[in-house]
Design goal:
This protein has 210 residues and is of the alpha/beta class. It has one domain: UDP-N-acetylmuramoyl-L-alanine:D-glutamate ligase, CATH 3.40.1190. The protein has a 5-stranded mixed sheet, with helices on both faces. Helix 6 links the parallel strand 3 and strand 4. Helix 2 runs antiparallel to helix 3, helix 3 packs across helix 6 and helix 4 crosses helix 6. It is globular, with a radius of gyration of 16 Å. The C terminus is likely disordered.
Length: 210
């Protein structure tokens, strides 16, 4: 069984994507923002620098055989600009989708990616499986040009359960799919009932399938 969690509807006025406090006040729920109009946005110089450093790190990592460059670009970019993921996802015309849960994230997200591609969407997808917030950031950086121009029309992110609250806050997803949650890696997560802990946006309705 799968739970579908939908975010709030689009709104007409284009916000400042870097100002979560004002977004939270306007939506009426602290730490929770509605989906926003998407498309080209002005890019801060810190974001441009973060993209350049992230893309360079990924290129060198692959060329030198240090790894696939699926996390390092995101780690370095976020040190330069912690808001880089927000800015890049906000530029996606169709917004983002998140897939989370204990099991089945990769299979489900790959099926959804195929469906979206067949329907004509250009999908930004963390297919390599780097599903922490640094991996999502690295995927977003890999999906833009060196000048920060997005190549995708929609984002699809497989997201680790522990990273989901932060991913919700930074991507403002159009739709979230959550698989069953089981007692798994208790040293990381604790009991599954802690999933809806303080900090999870209140506008997101959660139903745990235990």
């Amino acid at each position: 069984m799968m739970t579908m969690i939908t975010h709030l509807p689009l709104r007409s006025k284009k916000p400042d994507y870097r100002d979560d406090a004002s977004l939270g006040r306007r939506s009426g729920a602290a730490g929770c923002t509605p989906s926003v109009p998407r498309g080209p946005i002005s890019m801060p110089i810190t974001t441009s620098l973060a993209i350049t450093v992230g893309k360079t790190a990924g290129l060198l990592s692959r060329r030198l055989g240090f790894g696939g460059g699926t996390n390092l670009p995101g780690t370095l970019a976020r040190r330069l600009d912690p808001q880089v993921l927000r800015v890049l996802v906000a530029a996606l015309p169709q917004g983002a989708l998140l897939v989370s849960g204990t099991n089945g994230k990769t299979t489900t997200s790959r099926m959804l990616a195929a469906i979206l591609a067949e329907s004509g969407e250009r999908v930004l997808h963390n297919r390599a499986g780097a599903n922490l917030i640094t991996g999502l950031t690295a995927t977003a950086i890999g999906g833009v040009s060196w000048l920060g121009r997005t190549r995708a029309s929609i984002g699809l992110f497989e997201t680790d359960e522990a990273a989901l609250p932060q991913a919700l806050a930074e991507t403002h997803p159009r739709l979230v799919l959550v698989h069953n949650l089981f007692r798994d890696q208790l040293d990381r997560y604790g009991e599954v009932t802690r999933w809806r802990r303080p900090g999870t946006p209140r506008c997101v309705r959660c139903r745990l399938n235990l």
